[in-house]
Every structure is written in structure tokens, then in C-alpha cells.
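Model it.
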Amino acid sequence: MPSTTEKQALRKSRGRFERSRNVHPVGITGKEAPVDIISTMFPAYVGRQERTAFELMRRSSQEDTCTFMTMSGAMTPAGLHQSCLIPLIERGLVDCLTTTGANLYHDAHRIIGHRVREIDPNAGDLQYRLARIIRIYDLGFWEETLLETDKLFSALLLKPAYQKKMTTTELHYLLGRDIAKIEAALGVQSPSLLSTCWRYGVPIFSGAVQDGSIFLNIVKLKRLFNTPGSRDKFKLEIDVNDDVFEMGAMQHHCFGTLKKKMAIWILGGGVPKNYTLQGEPLLDQILGVPTHGFDFDVQFCVDPVDNGALSSCPAGEGHTWGKVSAESVQHGSMYVHCDVTAVFPWLTYALLSDARIHRKHRRLYDAREVAVKNLQKEVDKRKKKLLTTVEFDIPSKPKAKESLRKRASKGR
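Modeled.
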């Protein structure tokens, strides 16, 4: 016979089950609103993951959270920035962006008149190479597209405003400003992601800035113009230390100064995901500035969650690192196992179909200097304690191995 405790547990389990939603969709007529479709026609499997992600995106938008978006993979060649990201930014729903240098580089192709076309991924790469066609799975463009884009960025990066040390946000802000001028001169109707973020004050971080063709052109310019006798005409340097600190400062500004909850919407995974999430361990673990992590965590990624990769690390695992809050793990997170391009346009459509979902642009880029100064003040207040974290009894003798083993056993 079950014990009293077992009977109580059984009653609770039955009660939870009886209160669960009934799976009984009605026939689709074609007259439904997007929100109605996603709320009632996606009851199971990846469909329910998609529905839950949409509900969290809508909730975080309605609650006026500070939303950090990350984007990895070849999303600008696929046009996802034009179909989804730019409309979301224009509605004030994205406050900060982290992406790859490659996405920002490919973002510029269409601005200078080049096209990305749909191609057959099985037509033969040897033939594509002979024809000078660059392939990204089932997308293609002429090799000349890359060469012309290289010229564009080289010419911009040689301008006087770029000749100093800066973070990736400042680099992308300047590029966005200058590309906006080019768009105006050419009469471009569909603006780039760079110019859109500049226009609305959305900072763009790149966690691996050196992994992309914009930086490859920086390498070229340094080798061309920083030779003996050249008088160091090219002085641009990316300050990765300040860049990491600035990400932490942005997040500290959102929850500390603005007193807002924070959401992270992750498209793909990779470096952009972790570069954004690590702002929280930087604050709490490294700098000793209290934080509780992101309040909403929504990710769209094709990777399985059981391979130990950062790309597929779910919110619960991230919570153990202090990246997301306990509340997020329980009620505010969803990992959607899918191809971003197959799902995110539909969710964007459903979200933007509600005219009530819009926000005043927060313009976090304009708060950069204040945010950095405020975080530095927090570090200065904790300097005495932080100085104790830079000391370690570094072993120098053979017997030190046993000492380390004893120290490790104490920490268990």
C-alpha cells in the first residue's frame, strides 16, 4: 500500500495533469490572426517549443525589458536582417545586438548594388569555383562581390575618424553612420543592419571581431600603411579588453541604472551567444558586482543540447554559471530545436501583427560612456577585496603537487 506521503504526491501529480491544457485544435480556416494560430495550433513537440518562445518574446516585449539579441550563422546573406531584425529594431524591441563580423560584412553587398541569389547546393563546387561563384549552402554571389565590398570597407576604415583605438561598438557605429550616407547618396530603399542600428542607437558587439572580412581588411591596411617611413597613417586598433568591459557595463546599466529586467533572444549560438551571456559572470564572478542574470532566455538553434557545446547550452546550464536567473530557468526560458530561418520570420510576423507591441527606442549606444563610468565606480568600491583575487601561491617545487591536492580536497 502507498504511504501517506506517496498518496499526497500522487494527488498533486494527478491535479497538475488535470489542469494541463487539452490538446484539441480546431480546423484552420485561413481567417485566423497570426497570434491565434501560434497560440492554438502548436500544441506539441518543436511546435510547442515555438509557441512557448513566442509567448516569452511577447511577454518580455510587453514588460519593457532590455532585450539583447545575438545572431550567428550566415543570416544577412539569407536576408533575415531585412525580413526580421530591422523591423524589430524599428519597433524598439531590440536594444543591443551581438553578431559576427561576417554578418556585418555580407550586410553591405546589396548596398553597393550586388545581389545574393538562390542556387542549387548540389550543382558542383568545382564548377562554381571555375565560374567565380561563391556558395553559402544554397545561396550564391559573384566573387567580384567580395572584392568590391573589400574596397568599400578599406576606403571607410582609412577615414580620419577611425584612426584610434576603439571597441567594436564604436567601430560599427562609425561604419553605420558612413554607410547611411552612402545609402542616401545612392537612394537605397532597404537600409543595411549597420545603418539601422546607427540610426536607432543600437550598439553592435562582435565577440570575435578578428574572424571576419572587415577585420581582414584592417590587417591589410595596417601592413600597407604602418611600414617604416609611412608615419603610421593607419592607427585603428580594436580594444578587446574595453569591449568585454563595455558589454558588462551595458548590462549593469540596464538592471542597475534603468532598473529593467533583461531578455536575451538567441538566433543560432556560437560566439555571439556566449559573448553576451558572459557579461553576467564578468560582473558577479570576476568583478564582484551583484547580478542575477537574464530574466528571459529564448534560443533558436539546430544543435542538440547534450554535446557540451556552448551553442546548445540551455538556460538551466547557463544558470549554474550565473548567466540567467532562477526565475528564467523556471518560467522564462525556451530552447527551440530548429533552423532559425524556418521559424523566426513567422514568429516576427506574429509578434509585429500586434500593433500594441512597440517601445520607445532606448538608444543604449548613447549611454555607453555613462555606463562604463558607473561600472568602473562599482569596481573601484570593491578594489581592496578584488586585489585579494589576484594572489595565488604558484607552485615552484616538486612537493607542491601534494599541497595542491590537499587544497583541492578542501574545496569539495
